[in-house]
Design a protein that fits this description.
heterodimer; A: mainly alpha; 8 helices; globular; B: Immunoglobulin-like; five-stranded mixed sheet; 17% helix; 38% strand
Chain lengths: 231, 104
């Protein structure tokens, strides 16, 4: 009887692995059918086409497969992109197909994503503050620095953006209120700069020279709790 | 005697005004040029912006409080040195920009 269960378990495991492998193959096929034209074969946007795709390098993206599913399904605009060049693919593909694409991108281009995030979060020196103090610090820095580009409401409407009429795409997400990022991800992007999640070096710089981890965590907390999801 | 004293005060004030210098600091390539400056009380710093995007020079120093706000390409702003306290000027948009001002 024991042997019977072992054989059944092995067969089930094997079939699951085959399914996973098939799903990845399907994800790859769909990626190469559609996504490749903008994001490139290796996710490095090395297509030679002058498109403002951000985060530009998928292989450096810190988005989870679930977050990618949301963006692929609803399009970049739904999550704060300035343009709708990244369309809502829920009108093109089934949910399962979108899941396969996201898994392919996640597992092929940035397989070390979780380890990288975990390492950087464990290295951060964040002092524990009470909620009131954290809010005060986060709000002050957001107003002093972040709002100059992102706008006081985080909607991307600022004098800086107004004056940069030729290229507003340097801000991504353009509308912070709609961002798909969680608080940890916002903190890491503030600490290491937009380059950390695959945007360009010329985009938002690292704020770690100016603010310590505790202050940057307070800003991330402020953005996540007071900006994201507001109208 | 009173007249002489008054004249001396006026002459002193005039000499301070005449000796006050204007220093020019450019913002180019996301850098303050020069990045270090030695000035005197009464001097003025003119901030230029040669970058193709805006800057926002400011200092948190209370004695020489200063914030130009958004400064687009080509626009000049001026800051007067009011106190003998050395301070740093930063850009609120580009955190790696730093100007160290020593006041003598």
């Amino acid at each position: 009887m024991k042997h019977f269960y072992i054989i059944i378990s092995a067969l089930l495991l094997g079939s699951l692995q085959l399914c996973a492998s098939d799903d990845l193959e399907e994800g790859k096929r769909l990626y190469n059918e559609t996504c490749v034209s903008c994001h490139g074969e290796t996710g490095a946007t090395d297509t030679g086409i002058k498109l403002t795709v951000k985060p530009r390098r998928l292989k450096d993206s810190i988005l989870s497969a679930q977050q990618m599913v949301k963006i692929i399904s609803d399009g970049g605009h739904a999550y704060g992109a300035h343009s709708d060049i990244m369309s809502a693919f829920k009108y093109v593909y089934e949910e399962e197909q979108i899941e396969n694409i996201a898994q392919y991108v996640s597992k092929t281009f940035n397989a070390h994503r979780e380890a990288r995030i975990k390492k950087h979060l464990s290295e951060a020196k964040v002092e524990k503050l009470d909620a009131k103090k954290m809010h005060k610090i986060g709000k002050k820095i957001f107003k002093r620095n972040c709002s100059l580009c992102h706008g006081l409401k985080g909607d991307g409407n600022s004098i800086y953006v107004e004056q940069s009429k030729e290229n507003k795409e340097f801000l991504f997400p353009y509308d912070l209120r709609k961002t798909v990022l969680d608080e940890d991800q916002i903190f890491l992007i503030l600490k290491f700069g937009a380059h950390y999640w695959g945007a360009d070096k010329k985009d938002m710089p690292s704020w770690s020279r100016k603010y310590d981890d505790t202050k940057l965590r307070a800003v991330a907390h402020f953005v996540k709790t007071k900006i994201v999801g507001t109208d | 005697m009173k007249k002489i004293a008054t004249m001396l005060v006026i002459a002193g004030a005039l000499s301070v005004t005449l000796s006050a210098k204007n220093w020019v600091v450019d913002q180019k390539g996301k850098t303050f040029i020069p990045s270090k400056l030695t000035v005197h009380v009464g001097d003025t710093i003119t901030f230029k912006n040669s970058d193709p995007f805006a800057h926002n020079a400011y200092t948190d120093d209370e004695a020489n409080e200063f914030d130009v706000g958004m400064q687009p390409t080509g626009k000049e702003t001026h800051m007067k040195i009011n106190s003998k306290e050395s301070f740093n000027v930063e850009c609120a948009i580009h955190p790696n920009m730093l100007l160290e001002v020593t006041v003598e």
